[in-house]
Design a protein that fits this description.
This protein has 748 residues and is mainly beta. It contains two helices and 43 strands.
Length: 748
């Protein structure tokens, strides 16, 4: 008989309790349940937060990664008025989300590291994972937020345990799961400015002792409210209709096996992004005098539509000494098109003195005829009671994407050119990680992953366009990634951690045009160093997390957009450096007042003296970068686009107990410092600092079963330019308008 030390005996007891609990729970239930019975908070104490950042359910304090979790009221408030996924921008440290396509093509950035590419075949260094299935194509990343248990934001490379393109980090969504115990659900209805209506709800139905069903639905609408002064049509632009459904079926016959099946779809119609010609005052980054966001001079059709669907199966076997998982995912884009007046201005015939004058007309459409994505993961996880535990698995990914770009005559709106392309992408990986408890206070973790990625790209059809050769490309790349971290328990409330991690993003391909051949950006890699502290304070009345990091990206894939023509191409920068810090603090100031404060400092810098790019017409904008002999801007030393140095977020909730319920006031605020829109720097194409705030005042009763509230989003009516088109006279677009509304929620 082997004699164990007292430390190992304690580890065995704790591990056995954890494993027994996890075996009884269906996959992904970490958000709804506490780690152990003693985590139930007393009055004015914070709940224990559990996350699955390391593919296991853990207290967020024990995870050696800078990670945030949005859930419950904080998440509900953000989407109360029908907002799409871009509302997450700035709501946790180091996260930005933006889009030049409105609701349908979000682009994510973590620690300033992302990708501005709007090509329909683009990849991003931030991976979005929904219910354990990666959403690789950018069109899939905009699935709306409803009936969600939590959103985890994992900062820094996550290339060991997660499947696709994670060098910047992961944004991870987990739906509320079916339960076997009772019929329950919720409904949520709101109405707001511009006839914005939102309804979402869910019902959980146990079908038997072994089967349970959960059906969730979302309906969103906003009227067109922007007048088209070109056609004279009132309320012509910037509305939307969105509906989505998710059906989940849980089969849990015993504690050994359970299966969770998921079918979901999305259907979106409405306006494409509204662009405003000459939005930016020359020589400044100010909005032009007299600008009215409710008036646009659009002389081309403006619309978009999107239909997606998918299914997944997550199976789990709890065997002696080991747990096995199988995760199968299928995602499809059945139809997508976004058609717009990209210049946002008037025909040349109206003269250069017109505030809507643009040098040339641009009416385009981009779309997807089909995307089929299949992914499969098999993973094994140990259940050792001792200090050593591990997990290992294999992963396969296959995508077949077909897309197109069209150009039109802006006088007749007749198609002039059509370019259709196809990309096939396959990848496979094998991975493993090990956790070892050196003693009661020190835990070591290490991970390793081998990935092989292959892309085949070719032109399917080119109508009225002569492409520059080559018009096709085949690329393949293999890479080994690793990470090493340690967590030191200073005392029962304070942990310190350190982490070194690498990441990898496979090569990317952009289509050829009549000016540029197919461009291939080589694979990029990152090495990141991170250290931090996580602590519960004042007998769990508060908690804090603080991290510092430093990373270097080699061969970063960058997108050159515009210049003096509507052309996109890919390049690689030799190096990009990033460093910064992140802070999250929340707690009870008084039993009635709960507050949170988060912030980040993100410094990024492109390091490549040989790299130069075309810029806007220098008679129409003020380029501040050095100009070389080829009349191109040298971008060495520039920050990355859409990468604010500073972000700050804060929330506060004050409650007053009433005889039959509770009156509350909730407010949330987000600040970001200035940003660059492009790789080069120009006075006009630098977004000003932005502050947006929300307010919610309401009453809950019947033990929280019902809630009535009034709310406002962007309550200060902040108006900021959030993106631009540089090739055509300082055209740009702005943030979402101020909104006021009422909301009713009920649970059953």
């Amino acid at each position: 008989m082997i004699k164990m030390s007292k430390m190992h005996q304690r580890l065995c007891a704790k591990s056995a309790a954890m494993l027994a609990l996890s075996a009884a729970l269906p996959i992904g239930s970490a958000y709804a349940d506490e780690v152990a019975a003693d985590t139930a908070p007393a009055a004015s104490q914070l709940e224990t937060v559990t996350v699955t950042a390391q593919r296991r359910k853990e207290n967020i304090r024990d995870v050696p990664v800078s990670v945030s979790l949005l859930r419950d009221e904080k998440l509900d408030v953000l989407v109360s008025g029908g907002q799409d996924i871009r509302v997450l921008a700035g709501k946790v440290p180091s996260l930005n989300v933006e889009s030049s396509n409105g609701r349908t093509f979000p682009r994510f950035y973590i620690r300033g590291y992302g990708n501005t590419d709007f090509n329909i075949f683009a990849s991003q260094p931030v991976s979005l994972i929904y219910d354990d299935v990666v959403q690789e194509n950018p069109i899939l990343k905009g699935y709306p937020i409803f009936d969600v248990a939590g959103v985890e934001v994992l900062r820094g490379p996550q290339g060991t345990l997660f499947g696709r393109n994670t060098p910047a980090g992961v944004v991870k969504f987990e739906s509320v799961k079916p339960k076997l115990d009772k019929v329950e659900g919720y409904y949520n209805v709101s109405a707001a400015t511009h006839n914005t209506t939102n309804f979402d709800g869910a019902v959980n139905v146990p079908l038997s002792k072994e089967w349970a069903l959960r059906v969730s639905t979302l309906r969103q609408h906003r009227d067109d409210y922007v007048d088209n002064t070109f056609t004279g049509q009132k309320n012509a632009l910037d509305g939307y209709n969105e509906h989505a459904e998710r059906v989940q079926l849980l089969y849990a016959p015993n504690t050994t096996f359970n299966a969770l099946f998921n079918v979901h779809q999305r259907n979106t119609t409405g306006s494409a992004r509204v662009f405003y010609a000459n939005l930016i005052k020359q020589g400044t980054n100010d909005i032009v005098d007299g600008f009215d966001p409710k008036k646009s001079f659009t002389n081309a059709p403006n619309f978009q539509r999107l239909r997606t669907n998918g299914a997944s199966a997550r199976l789990s076997w709890d065997l002696d000494g080991i747990k096995l998982y199988s995760i199968t995912g299928l995602e499809q884009v059945g139809n997508y098109v976004s058609h717009g007046d990209i210049d946002g201005g008037t025909p040349n015939g109206l003269g250069p003195t017109s505030p809507n004058f643009i040098p040339f007309q641009v009416e385009t459409a981009g779309g997807i005829t089909s995307v089929k994505q299949y992914s499969q993961e098999f993973r094994a996880e140990s259940k050792n009671a001792g200090p050593l535990n591990w997990q290992a698995g294999v992963y396969y990914f296959n995508e077949d994407a077909n897309g197109f770009t069209d150009n039109f005559d802006t006088d007749t709106h007749v198609l002039t050119t059509h370019l259709a392309s196809r990309q096939k992408n396959s990848a496979w990986a094998t991975f493993g990680s090990v956790n070892y408890a050196v003693n009661d206070d020190f835990m070591l973790r290490a991970g390793l992953r081998y990935t092989k990625d292959k892309k085949d790209f070719n032109t399917v059809e080119a109508t009225n366009i002569v492409q520059v050769n080559p018009t096709s490309a085949d690329v393949s790349k293999a890479k080994v990634n690793w990470d090493l971290s340690g967590t030191y328990k200073y005392n029962k409330d304070v942990n310190f951690y350190g982490r070194i991690a690498t990441g990898f993003r496979a090569p990317s391909i952009a289509p050829a045009s009549d000016k540029v051949s197919v461009t291939v950006a080589d694979a990029e890699t990152i090495t990141s160093f991170e250290a931090g502290v996580k602590a519960d304070l004042f007998n769990r009345r508060a908690r804090v997390a603080f991290s510092v990091y430093d990373y270097q990206v080699k061969n970063q894939q960058l997108t050159v957009v515009g210049g003096t023509s509507n052309v996109t191409r890919l390049i690689n920068a030799a190096k990009t450096n990033g460093r910064g810090a992140e802070l999250e603090l929340e707690g009870f100031v008084t039993p009635s007042l709960k507050m949170s404060l988060g912030g980040s400092y993100n410094f990024t810098e492109i390091k490549d003296p040989s790299l130069s790019i075309a810029t806007c017409d220098k008679t129409r904008c003020t380029v501040t970068d050095p100009i070389n002999a080829a009349n191109r801007a040298v971008i060495d030393g520039n920050p990355l686009p859409q990468a604010p140095k500073w972000t700050i977020t804060a929330t506060g909730r004050y409650s007053i107990p009433m005889e039959n319920g509770e009156f509350f006031v909730f407010t949330d605020w987000a600040y970001r410092s200035k940003i660059n829109f492009f790789l080069y720097e120009a006075t006009e194409f630098t977004g000003k600092p932005m502050v947006e705030g929300g307010l919610r005042v309401g009453y809950t009763w019947d033990a929280g079963k019902y809630e009535m509230a009034v709310f406002g989003r962007n309550i200060t009516d902040t108006q900021r330019i959030t993106g631009a088109i540089d090739f055509n006279n300082r055209t740009g677009f702005i943030n979402e308008p101020r909104q006021f509304g009422v909301q009713f929620k009920g649970n059953f």
